[in-house]
Amino acid sequence: MQLLITGASGFVGHILSPYLMQFHNSVRPISLRDQWRRNDISEADCIIHLAGKAHDTSNTSFPEEYFSINTVLTKRLFDRFLDGPTKIFIYFSSVKAVADSVNGVLDENAVPSPRTPYGLSKLRAEEYILSQKLSADKRVFVLRPTMIHGPGNRGNLNLLYNIVERGFPWPLAAFENQRSFLSIDNLCYIVKLIIEAPPEVPSGIYNCADDESLPTNELVALIAESIGKKPKFWRIPKQIIKRIATMGDTFNLPMDSERLGKLTENYVVSNKKLKSVLGIEKLPFSAREGLQKTFKSFAN
After folding, report:
1. Which of 180, 182, 248, 280 could form a disulfide with 269 if both were Cys (CB 3.0 to 4.6 A apart)?
2. CATH topology for 2-150+181-209+269-285?
3. Is this model's pTM higher than 0.90 or not?
4. Cβ contacts of residue 119 below 8 Å, gap of 6+?
C-alpha cells in the first residue's frame, strides 16, 4: 500500500514509518508547509496526518498558532483528499479535543468541551472533517490518542523518571488517581489494522489508549524497578502541595497547577469502540509492559 505521512520526523512518525514499512508498505513523508504537486496526494492509497502543533505546557505559544497549524492546514490536506483518488484518511486528533479533565471514563459519546487553544484547534479540525460528505469508496478515521509514550518520548514521564533516578522520594504519593496511557507499539499496531481493515469497518471517531489505566504511584514503582531501585514515597498533605503549585503559577516554578494536574488527575479513556470495530480482544502490549519498555529506553 502507498502511504503518505505528515509529521513523519516527529516522535510518532519516526517510529510508525519504519514499522509500517515492515509489512510491505511504501511510506512517503510530506510537509504541510511546502507547495504540493497534484501527484503528491493522488499517488497515495492512505494519508496518515500526524503533523500538528503539540500542546505547549510552558504556555508561551499564541492561540492563533494552534489554529493555523492544527485546523487550517488539516482542512487544506483534507480537501485534497476529498478531491483525489486516495481511499483512507487517518487524522491524529487528541483526547484533549474532548476534555481537559475526566470524571469516570471518557468514551466517544462525551460532548466535547476543550478549554485550551490546543484542544479547540483539534476539535475544529475534527468538526470540519466530519462535516464533509464522503464518496462511497472513501473512509475517514479520526483517532483520539491519550498520552503516547515510547523511546524518544519527552514530557512528564521524563520528569517522573528523573525524580526517581536521582533517588528523590515521590512527593505526590497522597494523590490517588488512575490514568490511561498509550504505548507507541500499541499505536503502531492500531494504525496497521486500520489501513488493512476491510471496507465494512466504518469511518468515525475512535479513542486510542492501552487496555488498562494505572495510578501515578505505580508508575513510580515501575520506574524504580526498571533501574533496580526501591521506590520512595512521601505522602505530603494535598493542601500543602496545591499551595506550592499555586506559587508555581506566579513564580514560574517547575511545579505549577497544570503540571500537578497532569501528574495527579484521573484521566481514564475507553478503547472499547476501537477494539470492537477492529475485531480484537486486547492490544499486544499491556500498559505495564509498554511503560517498562519506555522507562528502559530512558536509561539508554
Report:
1. 180
2. Rossmann fold (3.40.50)
3. yes
4. 55, 94, 96, 97, 98, 100
